[in-house]
Amino acid sequence: MLFSCGCDTIAETNFYDNMTVLDRIDKGNFKAEILQYKSLTGSKDPDLAKDLYYVNRAGMSLKQVKITLNDGGVIVEPGALHFHKGNIMCDGNIGGLGDIAKKMIKKKLTNESAFNPLYRGVGEIFLEPSFSHFLILSLENDSIIADKGIFYCSESTLDVSVASQKNLSAGLFGGEGWFQTKISGTGVCILESPVPINEILKYNLNNEKLQVDGNFALLRSESVRFSVASSSKSITGKLTAGEGMLQTFEGSGIVWLAPTQSVYRVLSAASVSALASPTYNRNNPT
Hints:
- The chain contains 6 helices and 15 strands.
- The protein has helices spanning 14-17, 46-57, 97-110, 168-173, 235-241, 261-276; strands at residues 2-5, 8-11, 19-26, 30-37, 63-76, 81-91, 118-127, 133-146, 151-155, 158-164, 179-193, 201-212, 217-221, 225-230, 245-257.
């Protein structure tokens, strides 16, 4: 649709000309897209323009999740909705007393929201723009165990619940706590990742063992056993290797690792320390 604005003719598609599609999945009644803005050039504040310049130079990009429904449904994190167009209805997705109790427990144990709005109908839904990284996963009668707090939205056919550690060592020393988020069923889910997708190492274990020195596993198949084990069974081996307890994944299924996540944590902590310093100068950070 075209309309006139002064001397310019503006098309609805101009909005999408400033975007690229990083990833998408289309199931007919449910389509999910990760959109990325090519540039942000609308600032009239010189200081903000300078910040945007450094953001662009650093390779950061604004992203937005778009969901297209055709008599489908999507469950989203509260506050994530930006706008929607079409015949879309919102359901509080509260359920009965039993469901309320389960959802309150899930919120307490997994850092996920207790009540996620459910949108149904026909139309387009845009979630809040963000500099975050997003991952699209499609499950087919399967279950994954995800890191706390990374669930963003999902097709309404999926169930989001709580998974408890089945191994004492995993609960005590695994770094994930006693509970994580379980996503199961058939459908599409979108997770908010701490790193971009090209920095994620995706392993498909085939009756194998994977050991990780650190807390940077994003998700795993429920079929993969998780525990914590020593890097060496002998005292001499422990002293020689210089390693302690390792996250251990065994069996068959997927495990997704984010090897660079710890680097961003260190850099973020250093930035916070620098900003807190009384000698920090915003106009001359160095």
